[in-house]
Write a structure and sequence with these properties.
homodimer; 301 residues; alpha/beta; Rossmann fold; Pantoate--beta-alanine Ligase, Chain: A,domain 2; 2 domains; 3-stranded antiparallel β-sheet; 11 helices; globular
């Protein structure tokens, strides 16, 4: 595995790889990797000849009172994990080169970034789409893979790619979960033991909603009430939002008549976690959701 | 010369051209071409193996009360001119494909777009940088050429390219002028005969300022006063701004101690025209400015 820190050198590697007729797969990350990230790398490998994974904790996507400073970092462990899963290039750009003095350009995606997490994090998605546009121009991938756990991020990036005519295929990879259902996240490392227990309420709330839908419920208020009740029962959990939305436009919907996004955000102490699934009246196999909490639950895009 | 209207087909042409190891030069235009545009194509040819010129009257960069509807169009004449100057591909994307329903992404460059034309046209440059980012992803050029007449546009695009790490060389081509000094512009077609006479005041104002600087004047107020006086003497001219600025950052300056942008905008009837030059105390040859109004005046970037 080659490690590249220089942006120009990354572009030259991309040009050389492309000129050999090879397809480049790309997995942008903020590091502190877990099994979910490794699945993204595997997905990228299946779509390409050479995989680049980047680690860059992007200051632009953190709000002023958010967790930029304490965001977990362990590049040595990350490097070993990426090597193990068969990454070709680890791209580690430095913040000073990514945002040099004079930097003043923003890529903004409007409607899909307003609701859900965008309501509480008004500058977050502009930070995400700006860094992803930059990384795409640095790495020049044919295909890039993002996790469905950050579903709104995935939709924002898909929209940006379509709107700006970026010639890049965007692949959404299923959520990877711990044995008890908790969606894997680098931020899970913040949780105390009791918060960790309480955080199970997120995936339980999704499961409760999915069970209702499978039994024929279509009314959005009743479905959301069922999800909210699970989280309200957990004294350490503070719900930020529970929302039903169209999975493509992220517009809120009040009924589940077709596959519908159920997205949750909640705080456990100082830690903010998100989770989601695609609710569907049809077979759960189609949405990739499995009922057994001791197996890997997942949502397919 | 090949004509391409489909965005996907344009990208495929770009991929095929790149895979042959050829460099792509690009000249984006809004059509109604003049000698200035043809110079851009010639400059692109000198930097590349295959030249793409696009014609797209971009609705996003026109304000609500601006001249989108009456903007002059003559694709047949443009096609003949581009063929004549040795263009390889004429790219004619259709508005419905460029901005399909659901379009919601904007590329914004902040500081360099606020002053000068940005003060009176607050949405203009976001429209420019957004369409240029899109066209860059459609045409995939190695080098793109823009005219120095739209100097603020050139700086905004350079800044976007740097900030978003687009691997594209941006070349600024000198202003091409009519025999009497008027900078060539598609909008000159709007001018009545008397307005056309009055419009000469723009280049005369630049020449007056440059003459002062060559005689040792450094005070910005006196230099601007000289330029404003020339335009004030023309009863059909209504000055919008006359500004001295750093040519890289477009920050206003109050003295000409190094090569400095003098930018003008003025209205002649319903027609708004702009012009500029780089003022320099050193030899005029260095700035590319020639005093004789019957030869082609130009500013080099």
């Amino acid at each position: 595995m080659e490690t590249i820190t220089d942006i120009r050198q990354m572009q030259q590697w991309a040009d050389a790889t492309r000129s050999r007729g090879q397809r480049i797969g790309f997995v942008p990350t903020m590091g502190y990797l877990h099994a979910g990230h490794l699945n993204l790398v595997r997905a990228a490998r299946s779509h390409s000849d050479a995989v680049v994974a980047s680690i860059f904790v992007n200051p632009l996507q953190f709000g002023t009172n958010e967790d930029l400073e304490r965001y977990p970092r362990d590049v040595r462990r990350d490097t070993a994990m990426l090597l193990d899963v068969g990454t070709d290039v680890l791209f580690l750009p430095e913040a000073a080169g990514v945002y040099p003095p004079g930097f003043q350009t923003t890529v903004t995606v409007e409607r899909v970034t307003r609701g859900l997490c965008g309501a509480a994090r008004p500058t977050h998605f502009a930070g995400v789409t700006t860094i992803v546009a930059k990384l795409f121009h640095m790495v020049k991938p044919h295909v890039a893979v993002f996790g469905c756990k950050d579903f709104q991020q995935l939709v924002a990036i898909r929209t940006m790619v379509t709107d700006l005519n970026l010639d890049i295929e965007i692949v959404g990879a299923p959520i990877v979960r711990e044995a008890d259902g908790l969606a894997m996240s680098s931020r899970n490392a913040y949780l105390s033991a009791t918060e960790r227990q309480a955080a199970r309420s997120l995936s339980k709330a999704l499961a409760a909603a999915q069970a209702l839908v499978e039994h024929g419920e279509v009314d959005g208020l009743r479905i959301l009430a069922a999800a909210r009740r699970v989280i309200a029962d957990e004294s350490l959990a503070r719900l930020e939002y529970a929302t039903l939305a169209d999975p493509d436009t992220l517009e809120e919907v009040d009924a589940v008549r077709r596959p519908t996004l159920l997205a949750l955000a909640a705080h456990f102490g100082r830690t903010r976690l998100i989770d989601n699934c695609i609710l569907s009246r049809e077979s759960t196999a189609r949405t990739g959701w499995r009922k057994s909490p001791d197996s890997q639950l997942s949502t397919a895009n």
